[in-house]
Amino acid sequence: MTLASLAGKTALITGASRGIGAATAEALAAAGAHVILTARTAGGLEEVEGRIHAAGGTATIAPLDLADGDSIARLASAVSGRWPKLDMLVLNAAMLGSLGPVPAIDGKEFARVLTLNVVAQQALLTAFDPLLRAADSARVIGITSSVGQRPRAYWGAYGASKAAFENLLLAYADEVANLRDIRVAIVDPGATATKMRARAYPGEDQSRMQQPSAVAESILRLIRDDFPANFRLRVAGSARDQQEAM
Predict the structure, then answer these.
(1) What residues are labeled active site?
(2) For 52-69, how does the pLDDT look when each residue is reduced to its tens digit (9 = 90+)?
């Protein structure tokens, strides 16, 4: 079953206050879905919500820190109290951390990267699995990076977290493949003009780079299509993207 029409569908997007998360939320809302937006920054979420409402869509914001204790369980409880199912879950929130050689990785920061990029993602899948199973046709999209599959010097901490995230998500895909119509896809955006990328590549001219809206449109097309299980999409705005992370 495809999700050709998103009218009446509900989507949850993490890291939705800016960048790819915000653009994806706006694209799904424009296609008719009601979008639930989460991020730590309430102000950013309110701006995205305002743009969605101004364009005729609907949205609900839920400011929270995904790495903070039982925040995910509270979110799932609040969502299930208002909606009987969840049709789309976009796992976009992530932390870059500091780039540097493996022997110089700070243990405390590495633990924070793993907490958000891996542990919180498992908690999200656990908390929202019942609502995904309640949908006639659910889609789970995980945003990754090329360094999760192709290790690169100085990207060890972030790359390790993305490799673990991909393994976790694809294991979940295998587990639900024969139980419900829950399709899971991993999306590697390629080089995209985001604040995270600006931190990794300071001084880069982002005006000549693929914008988050292009990635969002690819995610929307993916959700609408009947893609196979364990699907991986590489979004490449230019030839340069084939060699770069994020």
Answers:
(1) 158
(2) 999 999 999 999 999 998
The sign of the torsion formed by the CA atoms of 108, 110, 113, 114 equals negative
Which stretches within 56-202 are classed as H helix?
A: 71-82, 107-114, 120-134, 156-176, 195-200
CA contacts within 13 A on the Cβ side of 63: 10
> What's the CA gap between 150 and 42, in Å, rounded?
35
CA distance linking residue 32 with residue 54, whole number of Å: 14
* Dihedral, CA of residue 155, residue 161, residue 163 and residue 164, to nearest 10: 160
Mean pLDDT of 218-231: 82
Give per-residue pLDDT as tens, 134-172.
999 999 999 999 999 999 999 999 999 999 999 999 999
Give the homologous superfamily in CATH for domain 10-243: NAD(P)-binding Rossmann-like Domain (3.40.50.720)
